[in-house]
Amino acid sequence: MLRSLCTRIRPLQVAATSSQCQLLSGNSKGFLPLLNIFTKSWNTWLQPTSSQSIIPTRCSSIDQLHRNGPHKKKVRDTKKHMQGKPQIKGIVLKVVTRKPKKPNSANRRCVRLRLTDGREVTAFVPGEGHNLQEHNVVLVEGGRTQDLIGVKHTVIRGKYDCAHVVKKKR
Q1: Which among 92, 95, 91 is positioned nearest to 109, based on CA atoms?
Q2: Average pLDDT of the segment spanning 21-45
Q3: Hey, how many other C-beta atoms are within 10 angstroms of the C-beta on 53?
């Protein structure tokens, strides 16, 4: 009987604590003694469905919506380290080799750069072999190297002083 009663009540919202144990719809006479008959607590019988929640959510009032407009979710900038630019020019300060994270072991060729906006970053040099030295000018794009910690830029081969990858001879 209680199960059928609960299925009828379930669409209605129920207060969260036993001291507030009353239906928010208004008609709650005779409901509490009926629950006391059974051994299970009233919380186990009146679990909300997946679409309902007994925890109140914070909603904006009509006045706040009128003043501020609807809530807009903040969009994270995925290219924050590039500041919205597709490529940036930089000058090589130092040529370094970095060791990758745990399962990988081959040393990666990287360069320390000073970008035209004044920042110093580390960039990965793709391909086998390179001709980069100190004071060379290179073009850099965003794109992190997964197994190198803190390396979020990649040098573009074939632009400015960085030569193309040399094709292997058979």
Answers
A1: 95
A2: 47
A3: 10
